[in-house]
Amino acid sequence: MTEYWSEHLETGQPVDVKYRIRLKEGSYRWVRARASARRDDRGEITKWYGADEDIHEAELATERLRRQAYLDEITRLPNRRAFEERLAQHLAAGGGAPLKVLMLDIDGFRIVNERFGHEAGDATLRLFGRYLHRTIPQADTIARIAGDAFVVLLRESGSNEALERFCARIGKSLERQLGRNAKTRLCGVSIGCVDVQPYDEVDEVIRRARLALVAAKRNPHARSVLFTPALHKAAEDSFEQIDLARRALKADWIIPVYQPKIDLRSGCVVGAEALLRIDHPQIGLQGPSAIWCALEAARIGRQIDDRMISLVLEDLAHWSPWPPALGGVSINMSTETLAHPGLARSVLKKLNRNGIAASRVTIEVTERVLVDQLSNRTHRTLRDLQRQGVRVSLDDFGTGFASLTHLQQLPVNEIKIDRTFVRDLKPDGSNAAIVKSMIGLALNMGIDVVAEGVETADQALLLRQWGCRYAQGYHFHRPLRANDFAKLCRIGSEAGVTGAESFNHRILAEV
What we know:
Beta-Lactamase, five-stranded mixed β-sheet, TIM Barrel, 3 domains, eight-stranded mixed β-barrel, single chain, Alpha-Beta Plaits
């Protein structure tokens, strides 16, 4: 500071400087000094005119604004702006240590928010920030950029393989630390990692990290995913699928087709599963894989589910009167749709409007609803529907992590044995004991059993011998459009046949 004053006194340049002064009691205050030199006719400095101004409160306010602009309010970590500027500084410097960027989020964070409240959610974010500092002490910058998304900037070299091993290790460590807290014990961690190149742009680095994170969240076998160019292609495919889904909703290309459900004892049709199809005017009938990414997106996925429910109920109304021997139609529903408030009321309203008995409808859910406990709201929705007569079916049973405890927590009316267990089914095969156990478990709990993907008569015979009553698959019928399924049901009802073989021969001859 003395050098600054000396220079200006010598040169006569105007003074405008901010500095702190120490008071007698030891505290400090910000002061601004401004002064101008008065010169004589020869240009010599004769006097200085100026004043000191107490700017302490203004400086504190400015500092608060700066912190608000660059610090996350909840975690007190740097925010997205601060992280982007820090990364930009490193990229502009060039030639320094190699850079790595990790983007992490907390799997199951929404459950914590919904189950324990937003205060617990905020506490979880702060806790996770501390865990990150403890787990990655060598990090250049750790920031929270949005929601439960955090980013870590590392300045270190190493191969991509070493980076993947590092991410796997810290992911395991973070999950172990989260598991010690009662409210976050079910939470996991997903990580997207990027090897930053000197010529990269900040926005591109963050976009790549986000793509890698999305890929990690979709991969149940990996905590972390390293960005590769293939993820760009996956992102483009995702965009095209979501675009197709939006156009399908707008143009009414979405239709249900019906996979008949067969009673293995009588061979008769006793219901169906409604399957989504896109009836594209140029490329023809497309399966759900054509819009898979849209089905996983919360908002548009709910719109598709809602459209399917409406279309199926309209078909049920058109098929009235429903043959007494037939059961109902099952409809697949995503966990995001089930968690949406007001779903039970909406479904029941549609049933009443179409004059459909609730018992004619089965809601199919996956094991994720049980395991993730996508909250009490989801369970409450299913219970509300059950109380009104709607049945609940647990789809793809055996492929997830549902246990007997989970089945007890959410009573289901039916389980569906996944086709992976039915495929290559033999009396002494490796799947035989598993399938028998599933059937026995369900029967002991008073739950119906449906085997999916039955493609041969031998599979159907084994399943019937082991006590499985219902099945569906190409051995019996391929999925049918609404009119063909209605015709199938009328024929079956009028024929009154009991043998599966004669029943199938008649249907194939007439449909």
